[in-house]
Specification:
Elements: H1 2-14, H2 17-37, H3 42-51, H4 60-69, H5 81-87, H6 89-97, H7 102-109, H8 120-131, H9 140-149, H10 151-168, H11 175-184
This protein binds 2'-deoxyguanosine-5'-diphosphate and fe (iii) ion (3 copies).
2'-deoxyguanosine-5'-diphosphate binds near residues 82, 111, 112 and 174.
GO molecular function, one term: bis(5'-nucleosyl)-tetraphosphatase (symmetrical) activity
Protein name: bis(5'-nucleosyl)-tetraphosphatase (symmetrical)
Keywords: Hydrolase, Iron, Metal-binding, Nucleotide-binding
């Protein structure tokens, strides 16, 4: 539809070529999942994928301003772009792209850290971002296969591997990342 073309044009203008192309590959993969899972609302999947990294190239100052102005959790100020571009980015997507569908905004908020509770849309965006055709890391073909067989197992795979990767480089772990790990990976 015309809406779709207009949104793609806006994102082409807002993002570097490198990121814009990533976003298009995430959209293609997300639509594959949607069809595979029998999800009806392709338009919702499409918009969520297209906007998911909208804020990724914004400055720290811009994120800090939004956190303060919108009274978001002040602890966010202790984090950086990796955490901000989803959680704070959702506010920019709402205000600047007029995306008001809370299911889409939540999928953006959850796309980096996952969450304890995830909707099918959340899982589709979380996994499409991770295994889109441009991604290349050890195990990517395995996780592609796992995810197409069972998207929940894909979510668990990504959550476990991302936490391992972050710990191996002694990165700061955002608390929600640990909560996602406890919910999806840890033996209960
Ligand atoms: O924006 P993309 O690069 O397409 O993908 P993304 O939003 O899933 O971001 C992935 C990056 O975020 C990846 O390098 C790992 C990082 N990340 C995820 N959880 C955490 C984190 N970084 C830190 N420091 N802490 C986390 O808890
Ligand atoms: Fe992202
Ligand atoms: Fe991701
Ligand atoms: Fe992404």
């Amino acid at each position: 539809a015309g809406n779709h073309e207009a949104l793609v044009a806006k994102l082409r203008g807002a993002l570097s070529d490198f990121r814009f192309e990533h976003v298009l590959r995430v959209e293609a993969k997300a639509l594959e999942f949607a069809e595979h899972l029998g999800v009806k609302d392709f338009e919702q999947v499409s918009v969520a994928a297209l906007v998911h990294d909208y804020a990724k190239e914004r400055s720290a100052e811009e994120f800090q301003q939004v956190i303060v102005a919108k009274h978001l959790d002040p602890d966010l100020l202790n984090w950086g772009n990796a955490i901000w571009h989803g959680v704070v980015g959702a506010e920019m997507i709402h205000d600047e792209l007029q995306v008001t569908d809370e299911d889409i905004l939540n999928a953006v908020r959850r796309h980096t850290t996952g969450d304890v509770f995830m909707t099918t849309l959340d899982k589709i965006i979380y996994m499409a971002d991770y295994i889109e055709d441009g991604r290349d890391f050890p195990g990517v073909d395995e996780v592609r296969e796992v995810t197409f067989n069972n998207i929940d197992e894909g979510v668990a795979w990504q959550t476990g591997h991302t936490l391992n990767y972050l710990m191996a480089k002694q990165a700061l772990i955002y608390p929600k990342t640990i909560l996602t790990y406890n919910a999806w990976v840890a033996q209960k």
